[in-house]
Amino acid sequence: MTDPGPRTPVTRARPVPPAVAELLSRVLVAGAALTVVIVLVVLAAGVGSLDAEDVADRGALAGAGIPGPVRAATVVVFALVVGLAEAGLWLLAARLLARGYAWARVAATVLGVANLLVEVPRAFGSAPLLGGVLSGADVMIVVVALALMWSPGMSRYVAAVSHWRSVAAL
Question: Whole-angstrom Cα distance, residue 161 to residue 24?
Fold first, then answer.
């Protein structure tokens, strides 16, 4: 009897992302692009009128004894920092979800719901026309992204990647 030698482990290829994962990535990149547009609009509005009393007076700094231009500059800086962080999260979610990370789907869902809690009142509230349109577009992108994230095709892909990782770890 001959010795067959050491057994070579069978390696499976990483699951191929389905079309829904590609579509989801494109929707999330569109969300990042829209966020950058919103940041640019806020910057243009804030820089265009540094005494933006109508914007700054409604914020948390209203009535704090801080001059209007300082409040307006604070709103602009806050919008820039938060907006660029949000755009980065959109792009990170696109990358991680395309790779099939299950935890990224849960985290993106939590962030998406938080985004909806902020944007729905803006979209249907008393925001200026441009702000309402941008918020409405943001709401639509988040709803489409959430639907795609939890679609049957994406769920099968995430499960297949999870299984692939557990087999590859052995």
Answer: 16
C-alpha to C-alpha distance for 59 and 161, rounded to whole angstroms: 45
Contacts with 111 (C-beta within 8 Å, 6 or more apart), sequence order: 89, 93
* DSSP one-letter code for 85: H
Q: Are 167 and 12 in contact (CB under 8 A)?
A: yes
Backbone dihedral angles phi then psi of residue 3, each to the nearest 5 degrees = -85, 125
The angle subtended at Cα 152 by Cα 148 and Cα 153, nearest 5°, is 75
Q: Which amino acid is it at 56?
A: A
What are the residue ranges in the chain where pLDDT is below 50? 50-53, 55-56
Output the pLDDT for position 64: 62
The two three-digit tokens of residue 165, written as one number: 């990782």
Scan for tokens 């050491």, then name that residue.
Answer: 6
The closest of 28, 37, 164 to 109, measured between CA atoms, is: 28
Phi-psi region of 5 (alpha: psi -120 to 50; beta: other; left: phi over 0): left
User: What pLDDT is recorded for position 50?
Assistant: 47
pTM (predicted TM-score): 0.79
